[in-house]
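Team,

Forwarding the record for the chain on the shared tracking sheet. I've put the sequence and predicted structure together so nobody has to dig through attachments.
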Amino acid sequence: MTVPVTRATPVGFVGLGNLGQPMALNLIDHGWSLQVVDSKPERVEPVVAAGATAVGDVTALAETPVVCFAVPDDRGIRSVLADGLSQRLGPDHLIIVHSTTLPNRARELAAEIKRATGAAYLEVPVSGGSDRARRGELSAFIGGDDPSIEAALAVLEDEASKLFRLGPVGAGSATKLANQLIAFSALAGVHEALQLTAAFQVAEEAALDAIASATGDTWVGRNLDFWDRTALDYNAAGVPEADRPWAKDLVEVLTTAADLGIELPVATLLSEVLPPAVEDRALSIAERAGA
């Protein structure tokens, strides 16, 4: 696709979970006409109430020139394509993938779609959480060719306040994984640091306030409740623990490193210690709230 999309262009949106739903609601607020798909009806209902159209047969998404995916990984994308959508795509379609995927898988998927259908492919994994997604203030890591990026700018600019053009397909996914590795390294450090201060009767808020003024300042430390709320939201939605970013994304970091022959000892340790730490903290918060 080289013809720029506008807010008059119908958009398909697959995946209405923790990020997908607020992203879709934000696009509706900006005047986009959405056709939406999710396996869980309770995720679809609020988006339909806001003005979207629910699609029962994924092949109907071929009526939209732009199809966005916000599913956990490339398996969800492949599943939708295999359900009949791929056979109905053509050179006038643009696929935008917001999922965090393996960079090499993104390259493979883009090549397969291009070869089979002629459709353009952009990887645009995002970061910022559900609140920023709802406001259209995400950071977007873009991988793809310039004509496709230019064609998609109108929808991307409504989804994200910061757009980073990083190179061909694969570059956006690699940068998103790098962001996740840095964020989760900081999160593990904050968790352990608070255990240390708690042992000396320092209140958590007081410790975080002090550290925020010093060289240990991090976005993670200043927004620790972001991770707590996200974990609790996943609990409420029944998201499998293996599909949550502090587990899934670290596995993808390590898989990518193994493909490249790179050793990442910090990521290896994080993948073992961080997921249970995040889940245990969220459980403790929920128990205190219910006490």
